[in-house]
Amino acid sequence: MADRPGLRPTADRVRETLFNWLQAVVPGARCLDLFAGSGALGLEALSRGAGAVTFVDSDRQAMDRLCAVLDSLDARDRADCRCERAERFLSHGSGPFDVVFLDPPFAGDALARASASLTPLCHSDSLVYVETDQRDPAALLPDSWTCHRNGRSGGVQFGLYRPFVAPG
């Protein structure tokens, strides 16, 4: 599915590192794959026992392909496909999510805008995966988020972050 303009699936090596970090968290987890594209991260979460994954992307063709893949894997009972803009989903989405995959297109300010609106869909133990080009992800995230783990591969920086969620 990488033939769609702007679609940039997470590299295998990065995905392997990420899911090694998440191995104790993913089984049974409720996950959000925002800017899903090919759905590689959410599909990997499902294959590793996630309880449910919500896939969100505004590209109708990419979502149709992803839904077809989910059907072929007989995984639609644990997947929710939403063809809509991330901003719209974040304004009405129902959380909380245990794990969020936040990997928007590198160009533009989608990461900063999405991360600023994501906290209400998280809980105090939520982990948010962030992938960027060579820019430091922390510089684009809310100041209240803390880095749990991070890495670099080629021209990509990635990390797991905990958004601050006020008690209550």
Automatic annotation (TrEMBL):
<dbReference type="GO" id="GO:0003676">
    <property type="term" value="F:nucleic acid binding"/>
</dbReference>
<keyword id="KW-0698">rRNA processing</keyword>
<comment type="similarity">
    <text>Belongs to the methyltransferase superfamily. RsmD family.</text>
</comment>
<keyword id="KW-0949">S-adenosyl-L-methionine</keyword>
<dbReference type="Pfam" id="PF03602">
    <property type="entry name" value="Cons_hypoth95"/>
</dbReference>
<dbReference type="InterPro" id="IPR004398">
    <property type="entry name" value="RNA_MeTrfase_RsmD"/>
</dbReference>
<protein>
    <recommendedName>
        <fullName>Ribosomal RNA small subunit methyltransferase D</fullName>
        <ecNumber>2.1.1.171</ecNumber>
    </recommendedName>
</protein>
<dbReference type="InterPro" id="IPR002052">
    <property type="entry name" value="DNA_methylase_N6_adenine_CS"/>
</dbReference>
<keyword id="KW-0808">Transferase</keyword>
<keyword id="KW-0489">Methyltransferase</keyword>
<comment type="function">
    <text>Specifically methylates the guanine in position 966 of 16S rRNA in the assembled 30S particle.</text>
</comment>
<dbReference type="InterPro" id="IPR029063">
    <property type="entry name" value="SAM-dependent_MTases_sf"/>
</dbReference>
<dbReference type="GO" id="GO:0052913">
    <property type="term" value="F:16S rRNA (guanine(966)-N(2))-methyltransferase activity"/>
</dbReference>
